[in-house]
Amino acid sequence: MKAKATAIGILFTTLSWTGANAAVISHNDITGDDPGLENPYTANLFVTSNISATGIGQGSGISGKIGDDRYNASGWSDVFNADDYFTFTLDANAGYRINIDSFEYHAQRSSTGPTSFAFRSSIDGFTTNIGSPTATGTTIDLTASQFQHLTDPIEFRLYGYNSGVGTFSVNDYTFNGTVEAVPEPGTLALVGVGSLLMFGNLRRTRKKMEMAE
Description:
The chain is of the alpha+beta class. The chain has two helices and eleven strands. The strands form two sheets. Strands 1, 2, 4, 5, 7, 9 and 11 form a seven-stranded antiparallel beta sheet that branches. A four-stranded antiparallel beta sheet has the order 3-6-10-8, with no helix packed on it. Helix 1 (2-16) crosses helix 2.
């Protein structure tokens, strides 16, 4: 019985732990002539198996600008504007789910480009800031529970503001994470049984230790 409980416990741990083997699930080096004139830009886009991605696009408040090897735009506002953003969407294929670990990007601004930034998601209607994006890029942690086991599309937006008449561009970006098959109902039931068995074993072990004292 103990061996069975241990085996089920290992299965439960394996199914629950999503961040250990994070890898690149979508990436774009953004190269070529004037990528910012395309909306969205999908050339050179890498997407791992069993998901789809839209590439990088622009909100309606900004306009693509010329500039090689970067996704460049102007029209950023001096105050936060919900239409001034770069956008990225990920979507799992049927029967699969996405666990996101992080978003990495490199960027640049002109001398009169935006100086303040925000990164938000469609999970809560783009209301909560995530991480601390900068004008030159950073890595944003996305290991929170709301970004795990995603079976529906998720959109992320990188906003820029506190700007003059200058430009801001993303030079490359990467989403890291894992993609896995959605467990069958029978597997989920087994995980539930495993949880109960593990809890029962812990209680019995604790009682034995108390009696031995």
